[in-house]
Structures are given as C-alpha cells and as structure tokens.
Amino acid sequence: KEKTGIGRIVTVLKRTRAGVQREARASVSSLKKKKTIKEIHFVLGQMSGAAMSGLSTDGLAECRQRARVMILAKLRDLLGYEKYVMMPSEVTELHQMRIAAKRLRYTLECFEPLFGNQGSGFIKKVRKLQTALGRVHDFDIWLGRLPSLAQNAAKNQELLLAKKYLMGKYSTLRSDGYMEFIELWKKLKKERTWQKITRLVTK
Fold it and tell me: Which of 45, 75, 89, 171 has the fewest Cβ atoms within 10 Å of its own Cβ atom?
C-alpha cells in the first residue's frame, strides 16, 4: 500500500515539474534566439584570456586588492554562521550557510588566476562544503513538503503509509548528511582552511 501512496505523490510532483519545465524551456529558447548565451561565453572567454597577460603592475595590484576585500567579506559571511554548525534543527541558518559557502566559492573562482594551484585547492574544499550543506537542505525541503503533498493522508491509508515511510527515510538520510557535514567542517577547521585562505589573499 505504501508503494501505491508513493506513486500518487510522484504523480503530483511530475505534474508540478511539467509546468515548471515548460516555463524553463521557453526561457532557454528565448535566450538562444537572442544569442545571449553565446555572447556571455565570448565575453567571459576574452576576460579570462586577458586576466593576467593584459594587466600592468598597478593593475595587478589593484586586482589583488579587490580580490582580498571581496574574498575576506564572503569568508566573514560564511563564518558568521559557524555558531549554528552544531544545531541540526536550525534549518534556515544552515541553508543560509550553504548560500554563503556558494558565494565564497564563486568569488574564489572569479579570482582563481591570481592564486594558482593553491587557490584551486581551496575552491575544491569550499565546493565540498557547499555540496554537504546542499544535501542536508535537499532533505529539509522534502521533509517540509511531504505533509502538504500527502495532505489527504488522514483519509487515505495508502498516502498515510507513504508519508510515514518517506518521513522516516528522509529523516534518516538527513541525519546522515548532517553528520557528513559536521565531519567535513571539523576537518576543514583542523586543517586551518579559513586561516590559510586569509593568509593567501593578504600576503
């Protein structure tokens, strides 16, 4: 019976997804017709190619200064959520921490040519943190949506069983994901990752 209930929930999700996909396809099609994506790729390619070769000594110094200010600001934003790391029930704050990690990663990527292999290594570490927090958030989304997806569960035994099974399953997976995040965070702290990023951009 729970399989039947899960099937009904999946059907509802597919219907919702189909509507969103139609809108997404229309937006992508519009961008292709206007050649927006090609133009973005062209401009970014030029910027990347000229990033180091076209800069004077003063220009390089200014670029490093901008990198320092922006990267340290994003790092401060991320560490501002550290007090919530050991609070698994703080769903909103952990989600905001994921966003902060994503912004730090993107900023590091923007200035990657300035910092070479060492910078690339830090990008990989921050990406792992973002992914770990993203997994936790994915299950928070499921656990938040399931009650409304199975809103008729009280009147339908199949939906009731499906909801109970999925809530238990996703709660376990969320806990596993959270523990993986904690272990990664401890590892990053032990390796003094945040101090090393600060040292890299301020030297």
Answer: 89
